[in-house]
């Protein structure tokens, strides 16, 4: 952004001899280039508050007691968050620690597997010529429009035949590959690696796998990191399929959260303490990797 | 031909297939097979005990289409989808246009719009369900504080749709904002300069330059939010503690209904038919979206035939020739 804008500003400045044109150019820079005023920041501030407020609000309720919802809204946290969080953690119906552990390692395995399979396939589609390649890539992209619901009945039958319902493997296995991931890596590698580089490696006598390893994997790293992040967040937040195939003893965090509310009596301070507890890991991830997540979305959009 | 040459030739010929095979093997087992098998099951009266079925033709489809619940669910899904995607896209374009300007601390603002994206839909559902509580909720509290009457969020169908759409908007507006922002930044800034010289104001520039340039991205965003919106499950599932779409199916959606048929009533034949009906609806709406978006957003004269550098160079020489003419 900044590169493009400053370059065009430079061209404007070079070509303005008269005061009238300078005024016009001033208008240009005011519209697109100059620092926007109060209203832009007021709008962004409002957006920021509406993004953060629901989380803050649930922390307030989650740190109060069961009457907090009925009182006038307190605005400052109460002192009960630890107690409420403990009653979520120790509630035998929720299975909090197994759920947390299941979410962590299943999301990690899924993201790692998607990155590996997508990088391999993306490299082949982007940089290797083979019979049927373009058609297969179109096929991969087309499958992205297929809803998850179209596969759940046979998958459930399959996993119950295998005796895997209730096992965390039943949510890992179907998620090991991703059509989006293949598309993402193909798009990235296509423009990130010049063909000359591959030819040079081939002329030097490198095998295909060696070329992939030295040239492909090295070039793919930034895109692979982003794909890992997106897949991790997606797997962590996924609900529909885990809710169907996992049982109450061995849930993931979203499944455990949904159980919190299904009791006959709903105590929102405990439900929302659980929500905050389950959201903290991903918020931490976001604080460390949010910049990459943002640039990943922006990069994917330009190329996609 | 020596052995190593032969080996190298084989390497070139078969390596690509080797590299794509993990994806396609997995996809065949957990993607392709289930899709096909869903079609087979949808023509059967599935027996859970024997785990096999009896062929019944289109009976399951006929059964679903004759259920009043299905039509309620269809109406609800569309209502929630429209209430979420339309305001969400308008908001996203608006926020992206603000972010597209030379703001300070732009990384901070970009990150802040993305915060809701990492919050699980179930968590968003639980938070907003509590905020929208009919008796004691924060939203009704505010409405009453400013002199309005409390809204029956969990009773009236339309209000429940508004509440659920709010959850969807909360989670996805920032994500779409960033996608649209990326598209805006790819627009050649020279267009805006030229438009300013021609006397077009910011609003006119937005509709004449920015919007047409956003077209491919808008189509992408609309299609993906359609696919996602028509499958909505998580948020309505936790909108009350029973998870069945409300006492009078006020917020029963197609996927909630599918779940209930499959894992509430344990009828897999009907659930499979329901899944295919959902898929056909998504395809149809996707096509309609494509046609409508194409005709609504014009793109005259904005096909990029030159690279950005070429465009910039041309603009520069044009400006210089104008300058020389004036001398």
TrEMBL record, chain A:
Family matches, as Gene3D superfamilies: MetI-like
Localisation per UniProt entry: Cell membrane
Domain of life the protein comes from: Bacteria
UniProt KW keywords: Cell membrane, Membrane, Transmembrane, Transmembrane helix, Transport
SUPFAM superfamilies, alphabetized: MetI-like
Record carries keyword Cell membrane: yes
GO-annotated cellular components: plasma membrane
Membrane topology type: Multi-pass membrane protein
Pfam hit, one: BPD_transp_1
GO biological-process terms attached to the record: transmembrane transport
Protein name, per record: Carbohydrate ABC transporter permease
UniProtKB/TrEMBL annotation, chain B:
Subcellular location per the Swiss-Prot or TrEMBL entry: Cell membrane
GO BP, sorted A to Z: transmembrane transport
Entry-linked InterPro entries: ABC_transporter_permease (IPR051393), MetI-like (IPR000515), MetI-like_sf (IPR035906)
GO cellular component: plasma membrane
CDD domains assigned: TM_PBP2
Transmembrane in keyword set: yes
Membrane-spanning parts: 20-44, 78-99, 111-132, 214-233, 273-292
Residue span, ABC transmembrane type-1 domain: 74-289
Annotated SUPFAM superfamilies: MetI-like
Statement: the UniProt record of this protein carries the keyword Plastid: no
Membrane topology per record: Multi-pass membrane protein
Keywords, comma-separated and alphabetical: Cell membrane, Membrane, Transmembrane, Transmembrane helix, Transport
UniProt cross-references to Pfam families, sorted A to Z: BPD_transp_1
Origin: domain of life: Bacteria
Family: Belongs to the binding-protein-dependent transport system permease family.
Name of this protein: Sugar ABC transporter permease
Organism: Candidatus Microbacterium phytovorans
């Amino acid at each position: 952004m900044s590169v493009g804008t400053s370059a065009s500003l430079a061209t404007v400045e070079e070509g303005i001899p008269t005061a009238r044109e300078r005024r016009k150019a001033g208008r240009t820079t005011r519209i697109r280039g100059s620092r926007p005023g109060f209203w832009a920041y007021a709008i962004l501030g409002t957006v920021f508050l509406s993004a953060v407020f629901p989380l803050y609000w649930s922390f307030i309720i989650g740190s109060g007691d069961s009457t907090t919802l009925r009182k006038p809204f307190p605005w400052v946290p109460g002192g009960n968050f630890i107690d409420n969080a403990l009653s979520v953690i120790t509630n035998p119906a929720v299975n909090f620690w197994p759920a947390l552990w299941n979410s962590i390692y299943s999301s990690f395995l899924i993201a790692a597997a998607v990155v590996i399979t997508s990088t391999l396939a993306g490299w082949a589609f982007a940089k290797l010529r083979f019979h049927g390649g373009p058609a297969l890539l179109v096929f991969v992209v087309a499958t992205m429009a297929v809803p998850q619901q179209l596969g759940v009945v046979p998958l459930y039958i399959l996993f119950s035949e295998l005796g895997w319902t209730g096992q965390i493997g039943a949510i890992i296995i179907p998620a090991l590959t991703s059509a989006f991931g293949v598309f993402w890596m193909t798009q990235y590698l296509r423009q990130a690696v010049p063909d000359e580089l591959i030819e040079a490696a081939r002329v030097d006598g490198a095998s295909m796998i060696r070329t992939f390893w030295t040239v492909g994997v090295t070039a793919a790293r930034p895109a692979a990191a982003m794909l890992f992040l997106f897949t991790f967040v997606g797997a962590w937040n996924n609900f529909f399929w885990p809710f169907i195939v996992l049982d109450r003893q061995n849930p993931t965090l979203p499944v455990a959260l949904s159980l919190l509310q299904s009791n006959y009596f709903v105590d929102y301070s405990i439900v929302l303490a659980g929500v905050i507890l389950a959201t903290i890991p991903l918020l931490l991830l976001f604080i460390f990797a949010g910049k990459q997540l943002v640039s990943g979305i922006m990069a994917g959009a330009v190329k996609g | 031909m020596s052995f190593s040459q032969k080996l190298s030739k084989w390497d070139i010929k078969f390596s690509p297939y080797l590299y794509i095979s993990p994806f396609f093997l997995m996809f065949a087992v957990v993607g392709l097979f289930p899709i096909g098998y869903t079609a087979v099951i949808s023509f059967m009266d599935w027996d859970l005990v024997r785990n096999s079925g009896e062929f019944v033709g289109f009976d399951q489809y006929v059964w679903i289409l004759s259920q009043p619940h299905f039509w309620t669910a269809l109406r609800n899904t569309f209502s929630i989808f429209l209430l979420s995607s339309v305001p969400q896209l308008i908001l996203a374009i608006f926020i992206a246009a603000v972010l597209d300007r030379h703001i300070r601390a732009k990384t901070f603002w970009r990150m802040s719009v993305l915060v809701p994206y990492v919050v699980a839909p179930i968590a968003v559902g639980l938070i907003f369900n509590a905020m929208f509580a009919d008796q004691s909720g924060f939203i009704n509290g505010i409405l009453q504080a400013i002199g309005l009457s409390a809204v029956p969020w969990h009773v009236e169908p339309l209000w429940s749709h508004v509440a659920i759409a709010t959850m969807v908007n909360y989670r996805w507006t920032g994500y779409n904002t960033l996608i649209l922002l990326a598209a805006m930044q790819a627009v050649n800034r020279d267009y805006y300069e030229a438009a300013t010289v021609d006397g077009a104001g910011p609003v006119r520039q937005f509709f004449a330059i920015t919007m047409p340039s956003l077209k491919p991205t808008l189509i992408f965003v609309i299609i993906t939010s359609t696919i996602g919106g028509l499958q909505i499950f998580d948020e309505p599932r936790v909108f009350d503690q029973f998870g069945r779409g409300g006492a009078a199916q006020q917020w029963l959606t197609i996927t909630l209904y599918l779940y209930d048929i499959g894992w509430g009533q344990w009828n897999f034949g009907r659930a499979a038919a329901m899944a295919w009906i959902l898929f056909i609806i998504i395809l149809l709406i996707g096509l309609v979206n494509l046609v409508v978006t194409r005709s609504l957003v014009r793109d005259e004269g904005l096909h990029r035939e030159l690279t950005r550098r070429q465009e910039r160079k041309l603009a520069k020489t044009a400006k210089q020739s104008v300058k020389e003419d004036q001398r």
